[in-house]
Structure formats: C-alpha cells, structure tokens
Amino acid sequence: MALTPAAFTDALLREAQETHPWLHHPLFRMIWDGKLDRRQLQSVIRQQGCFFLDTLRHAAWKIVSVGGYSPTFEDLKRQRALIPLVVEEGGEDTVGGKSTAHAFLFIKLAEALGISKDELFATEYLPTTIIEKNELFLLQRTSTLEALCGGNIDPRILASVMVRELERDGWVHLRNRKYERRVNGVRMEILGLDDPHIHRADLTVAPRTSPDAFGLAVVHSPDPAPELAALGYDPQTAGGLLVSLPAEKGPALEAEFTARRLFVRRIGSVEEGSGVVVS
C-alpha cells in the first residue's frame, strides 16, 4: 500500500534519525562530548571542508536533476521551486538578505578554530573523503528525491548500482555474507559485514563454516573485532579499498582501476620500503 506524502516524510525523517552518521558515528559523538583535542578537531573540520566549501554546486545539482534535455512545464515549475535552495547556499545577502553563503560561514568556523583560509583551502583530502564526495554527487544526479535529500537517504540506493557494476566485473559482494575460495593454494573463509555504526552488521552470519580454513573478516569499524577474533577470524577494518603493493606495480594497478571507472588515489607508503597504497 502506497504511503501518503505525510507518512512518507515521517518515515524518511525516522530513517535519517536512525542512520545519519552525524547522529550515530563515534567520531561525531566524541565531538559532541568534547573528547577531541584542538588539533584533532582542526583535522576533522579541514576534511569536512571538502563538502561545506562546495555546497553551492551541490545546491545547483538539485535543480539540474529536475527534468531532461527538453523539460516539461511541470519540470520548470519544480526547478523554480528549488531556486531558494541555491540562494540559501550562495548567500541571501546576494538578493538583499542578511545571511551570507554557508561556505563563508564554514570559513569563519575554521578561522575561529585557528585554521587560516589558506590552510583550509590547501587541505589534502583523505581518499575516503574524496570517495564519499564522489558518491554524494553521483547520488544527487540520480533523481530529484535523492538530490533533495542531499545524500542522507539510505546509501544502499547508490550501493545497489555500484554492486551491480562490480559483480558484472567478477567481484563478490560480501554484505553480511561469507565466501570461500582458495588463494595461492590457501583455503580461505572470508566474511564481510555491513556498517556496525548504523546497526546493519549481522553477526549471526559470522560463525565459522570451515574452521580449518584461514578466516578473514572485513568490516567498516573495529567494534565487533573481539567477537570476530574469538571466532577465529583475522579482523580487518575497511575505509574504501586499500591495497599495498610493490611500488613498481602501482602504475599498472592504477591503470586497471581507471579502465574500470574506479576512483584511484595514491596515498604513500605504510612503512619504508613497503610500496604504495592506493584507494
């Protein structure tokens, strides 16, 4: 049975309250509790600049997402209705109001924390920050609803598209799922868990099926590591795909990822002589 507009809105807000990372991620809880020192908080704010210094383009995509090459009259009305969002992000002071651009307010926040404007705009963003932003822009191009939600709706909408693309190329999607295979003659039992931060990890699938095989568990955060280790897994946390390999093999891997339209960023070496890490 279809939901009424009011019921759908209520359901959407409830999901945001239950899953939004700013409400549930341990990092943002630590910020709220005042557990980060000044240097740590500065690092977080500089990474967030990847998003908050670019909110005007995000707002513009909300309009671009409506209609197509030949918009209908209804498309035009919806586009006009979204103009206040662009004005809000770009600054109401541009049309006679008092509030300035959200990006300018973010710059003031950074300066209040001791981060100069030059430092803020020279921030080298982490690979996971860049990946998240790329996914957000892709999501906002998907439809008007996704664009209006600004990426705060269930990310599985985007993930399902990515999963289909990866599975087509031979990847195996391990979302609360185990998979067995041999790697260089070594029998492995590999477990992949969803994000524990938003209560989507399902440990009921974790008990070993093949306890004699080498067990590898991949999960977004270390929260369930004790339980996984007790089950005989080597738990590994994953923030994007991190690969370490000899430096001379880096260009070939990067070329392969690029050919498959996968984002690649070289971020240096784990330790001296270990090669490069790409994500």
Describe, in plain words, how this protein is organized in 3D.
The protein has 279 residues and is an alpha/beta fold. The protein folds into 3 domains: 20-154, Heme oxygenase-like (Heme Oxygenase, Chain A, Up-down Bundle), CATH 1.20.910; 172-237, no CATH class; 243-278, no CATH class. 48% of the residues lie in helices and 11% in strands. The chain has 13 helices and 6 strands. It has helices spanning 5-19, 21-24, 26-32, 38-52, 55-64, 73-90, 102-112, 117-121, 127-140, 144-149, 156-168, 225-230, 250-259, and strands spanning 177-183, 186-192, 214-219, 233-237, 243-245, 276-278. The chain has a 4-stranded mixed beta sheet. A two-stranded antiparallel ribbon has the order 5-6. Helix 12 (225-230) links the parallel strand 3 (214-219) and strand 4 (233-237). Helix 4 runs antiparallel to helix 7. The protein is globular and about 70 Å long. The two termini are 43 Å apart. The model is unreliable at 151-155 and 267-279 (pLDDT under 50).
